[in-house]
Amino acid sequence: MGQGEVNVTTPVSGEMPGHSSLKQQPKKWPFDPNCPVRDVLDRIGDKWSTLVLVTLANGPHRFSAVQRAIPDISKRMLTQTFRDLERDGMIARQVFPTKPPSVEYRLTPLGETILKPLAALVRWADRSHAAINHARLAYDETT
Amino acid sequence: MGQGEVNVTTPVSGEMPGHSSLKQQPKKWPFDPNCPVRDVLDRIGDKWSTLVLVTLANGPHRFSAVQRAIPDISKRMLTQTFRDLERDGMIARQVFPTKPPSVEYRLTPLGETILKPLAALVRWADRSHAAINHARLAYDETT
DNA sequence: CAGAATCCTATGAGATACTG
DNA sequence: CAGTATCTCATAGGATTCTG
Question: Is A42 a residue whose pLDDT tops 60?
């Protein structure tokens, strides 16, 4: 998830524009590698974005405040996560030109819209982690 | 996300068991690195798990069927994703001892429970990808 | 067909030091 | 304080080959 650029794993090999596929996908959706949903999902899937988003759900935070809230993130990763989220329009950055500079990050309206689906997933994780741990133990025993 | 083992980034440095913290978290939850929710979220965050889960939501699939549904996954990664999901109790594996062996994967009851929160997120991604792309273009221009 | 075994590279991400 | 710049290492993950 570097600086940007595309993400195409498969160069969309075949599919000349000419025989525009009369019966291409009979049933559901075999996932297109450059499907926009996958593109977006990959982002929430990274190690830190969701943590940052949930932190900012409690209101604007300064750089160091977020770092305190997520103790094991490095400055390097926090900076990059902020940039990626800002690029995606999920958070906004505001600089206060004080003596030691101070920067505040806050959710944008778009960013706020992800909180509900995200919270649903967090609740699921919270309800399920016991069952998952149990399954893991059982699995590891039989192996 | 190798074979297992722990994932502790920070060794939970301080916090001797003795002064059991009278005022430890004044407000919300500064994220504990080995919080179970994070552990679970990290898994759904990997590149392939969610795709596999959503594929199996349409019913049991064989190995090669899933591979056709997700064209750009390698056998290596598909095998590993299957194993991780099985270990977590999200999917079940059933072997049919036919001449060329055939293996079917299906969601467990636990695995089914993640579909709703997951679908909510997919719907969010679907509704938002246009706004996100727009934000990215705007961002890249001013940079 | 459904994997297991190897090999190899791209990159995610920590640690550290420097700067306006 | 809020970053940027390097260096470095671990590992996610692709390509290829082999097997029951």
Answer: yes
Residue B2 is given by DSSP the state -
Tell me which protein residue sits closest to nucleotide C12, measuring alpha carbon to C1'. A1
Percent of chain A beyond pLDDT 70? 79
Q: Hey, are the CB atoms on A31 and B70 less than 8 Å from each other? A: yes
Question: What separation in angstroms does the CA of B76 have from each of B46, B51, B105?
Answer: 15, 15, 16
Count other C-beta atoms under 10 Å from residue A87's C-beta: 20
Is any atom of nucleic acid chain D found less than 7 Å from the CB of residue B2?
A: yes
Residue B98 C-alpha from the chain's centroid: 31
The CB density around residue A83, as the number of other CB atoms within 10 Å, is 15
What is the reported pLDDT for A142? 86
Q: Give helix A36-44 / helix B115-142 axis angle, nearest 10°.
A: 90
Task: Lowest mean pLDDT of A16-20, B76-80, B115-119, name the range.
Answer: A16-20
Q: CA-to-CA distance for A89 and A84, rounded, in angstroms?
A: 9
Q: Which of 59-88 (A) contact B at CB < 8 A?
A: 68-72, 86-88
Q: What is the pLDDT of residues A105-140, one digit of tens each?
A: 999 999 999 999 999 999 999 999 999 999 999 999
